[in-house]
TrEMBL record:
Pfam families: PP-binding. InterPro entries: ACP-like_sf (IPR036736), PP-bd_ACP (IPR009081). It comes from the Bacteria. It comes from Frankia umida. SUPFAM superfamilies: ACP-like (SSF47336). Residues 5-83 form the Carrier domain. This is Acyl carrier protein.
């Protein structure tokens, strides 16, 4: 993915990753869906999902941020921030 990915594109991609990695049906996923309280979600699956997001976008999400992410919107926000951050 490039840094030019739109919010909608990131939302679509993250939603698909959540679906695949946590197993929540797409029709039950919304941007404000609670990822940690969802049926079938556990800390391992959430970490695998975050790892997939990081690999997809070539970013690293700070560990402190990982443990505060509770919705798809939260993940999208962190991805957008990482993509717009200046390269070190």
């Amino acid at each position: 993915m490039t840094t030019a990915a739109s919010r909608d594109e990131i939302l679509r991609t993250v939603t698909e990753i959540v679906h695949r990695e946590i197993g929540i049906p797409l029709d039950r996923l919304a941007p404000d869906s609670d990822l940690r309280g969802a049926e079938g979600a556990d800390s391992v699956k959430v970490l695998v999902m975050i790892s997939r997001v990081e690999r997809t976008y070539g970013i690293e999400i700070d560990d402190q941020d990982v443990f505060t992410l509770s919705s798809i919107n939260d993940v999208v926000r962190v991805v957008q921030a990482a993509l717009s951050a200046p390269a070190l």
